[in-house]
From TrEMBL:
Species, as recorded: Mycolicibacter sinensis (strain JDM601) (Mycobacterium sinense)
Molecular function, one GO term: catalytic activity
Pfam families in the record: ECH_1
Protein name: Enoyl-CoA hydratase
Coiled-coil ranges (or none): none
Family as reported in the entry's similarity comment: Belongs to the enoyl-CoA hydratase/isomerase family.
Length: 255
């Protein structure tokens, strides 16, 4: 069963994360399907913008922690850095639309997009430190978007923040009431349909040039190694075990 539903029409490619059973976690299958869907949408001449959305109450919860306990992903599997790079360098604008919460690696998907529209009820959190790991890979795309003080707080505390807080911090562009999400999305897709495709792509390259993309790729390769080290560390193994067993990790004081 597909975990990423694709619908193309009216100049828009809609990519829907559809794995609510595991909170749209970035499993091997979901990553692979999302990577392919992004590439197909970018290559499709009739597509002027790409929408990344979801089913269920969670936009994306980040890494699939059940898979992570099983060890490194198989070779040739689409990685989170590859997906972030493709969103970053897509000549077509990518719009994230969130009706549900985002956690950990899900914030990386959000930050890589060109436009982020969130329901006023949505919350965001980088919970990695509570699991004994670090928000390494996603930091490469979150830092250019957010104020340094805000990202510092978000990473260190692991506490959830509101959509309004995220907008002030730079992570979210537009916050609307839940019933207005579709209308606000339509406002952006219609604007992109009116834009000349080559001019739009060239305009995006003003802030995401080839040099910037090359620098991002280099940084992501280094951060991916850092992330892997912490997932394999003693703290990382204990954090994942505690999560799976629904208990407090050993490092957390009791009481």
């Amino acid at each position: 069963m597909s975990l990423v539903k694709v619908d193309v029409g009216g100049g828009v490619a809609r990519l829907l994360l559809d794995s609510p059973a595991n909170r749209n976690a970035l499993s091997t299958q979901l990553r692979t399907e999302l990577y392919t869907a992004l590439r197909d949408a970018i290559a499709e001449d009739g597509v002027r913008s790409i929408v990344l959305s979801h089913t269920g109450t969670v936009f994306c919860s980040g890494a699939d922690l059940k898979e992570a306990r099983g060890g490194p992903a198989a070779l040739r599997t689409a990685t989170v850095p590859q997906i972030l790079i493709d969103i970053w360098r897509s000549p077509k604008p990518v719009i994230a639309v969130l009706a549900g919460v985002a956690r950990a690696g899900g914030l990386g998907l959000v930050a890589a997009c060109d436009v982020v529209i969130a329901s006023s009820s949505v919350t965001f959190a980088c919970t990695e430190v509570h699991l004994g790991v670090v928000p390494a890979v996603i930091s490469a795309v979150m830092r250019p978007r957010m104020t340094s003080a805000a990202i510092h707080q978000l990473y260190l505390t692991g506490l959830p923040v509101s959509a309004q807080w995220a907008q002030q911090a730079g992570l979210v562009d537009v916050v609307v009431e839940p019933e207005r999400l579709d209308d606000e999305l339509r406002r952006y897709t219609e604007a992109f349909n009116l834009a000349a495709p080559q001019a739009l792509a060239a305009t995006k390259r003003l802030s995401r040039s080839n040099d910037a993309i090359a620098a991002l790729q280099t940084e992501l390769a280094q951060l991916e190694k850092l992330s892997a080290r912490h997932f394999a560390s003693e703290e990382g193994r204990e954090g994942l075990a505690a999560f799976a067993e629904k208990r407090r990790p050993r490092w957390a004081p009791s009481g």
